[in-house]
């Protein structure tokens, strides 16, 4: 998924195509969030399956969606200071997701600040849910193996 992010041109995101940009952002985030919640629910209910690849793909999807959004916003002067490339956008997304924030790239416009707040809330709700489901799967398998169940 990250390879596609770097290979696919994202010129159609940004201030020149606001409807396409926002619609794509909302739809993709909704799909990723729904997928994470679905997989977490499956794990909580004890359904069989291999959630690791699904959840990691969805987490990568969230990274790509936010990175593309930040890249598009950076085309509007004054929104994101210091963000000019896809690597910058991915870096900013990861740093924001980890709630580290070095200050080298920062939102200065109102739209960028709102999207950063959305990402932080999204991380707390959806990504934490995905990681919790992964942890549950690992615990369940570890206990099962310790008991000789496979």
What does this protein structure show overall?
There is one protein chain. The chain has 150 residues and is an all-alpha fold. It has a single domain (11-139), classed as Helix Hairpins, CATH 1.10.287.70. Helix content is 70%, strand content 3%. The protein is built from five helices and two strands, in the order αααβαβα. It has a two-stranded antiparallel sheet with strand order 1-2. The longest helix is centred in the last third of the chain and has 37 residues, at 110-146. The two termini are 32 Å apart. The model has no long low-confidence stretch (mean pLDDT 88).
- Would you identify the CATH architecture? Orthogonal Bundle
Distance between the termini: 32 Å
Task: Write down the overall geometry.
Answer: elongated
β-strand amount: under 5%
The major sheet is characterized as: 2 strands, antiparallel
Number of domains: 1
Share in helix: over 70%
Radius of gyration, CA atoms, in whole angstroms = 17 Å
Q: Looking at CATH, which topology would you report?
A: Helix Hairpins
The overall average pLDDT, rounded, is 88
Name of the CATH class = Mainly Alpha
Low-pLDDT sequence parts = none
Structural class: mainly alpha
Order of H and E elements: HHHEHEH
> Helical region count?
5
Care to count the β-strands? 2
For the largest sheet, list the strands in their spatial order: 1-2
């Amino acid at each position: 998924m990250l390879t596609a992010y770097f290979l696919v041109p994202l010129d159609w995101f940004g201030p020149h195509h606001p409807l396409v940009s926002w619609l794509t952002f909302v739809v993709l985030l909704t799909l990723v969030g729904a997928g994470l919640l679905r997989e977490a629910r499956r794990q909580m209910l004890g359904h069989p399956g291999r959630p690791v690849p699904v959840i990691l793909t969805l987490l990568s999807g969230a990274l790509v969606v936010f990175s593309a959004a930040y890249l598009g916003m950076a085309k509007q002067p004054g929104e994101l200071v210091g963000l000019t490339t896809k690597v910058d956008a991915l870096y900013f997304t990861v740093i924001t997701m980890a709630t580290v924030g070095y200050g080298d790239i920062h939102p200065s416009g109102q739209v960028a600040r709102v999207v950063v707040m959305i990402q932080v809330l999204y991380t707390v709700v959806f990504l934490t849910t995905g990681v919790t489901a992964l942890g549950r799967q690992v615990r369940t398998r570890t206990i099962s193996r310790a008991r000789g169940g496979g």
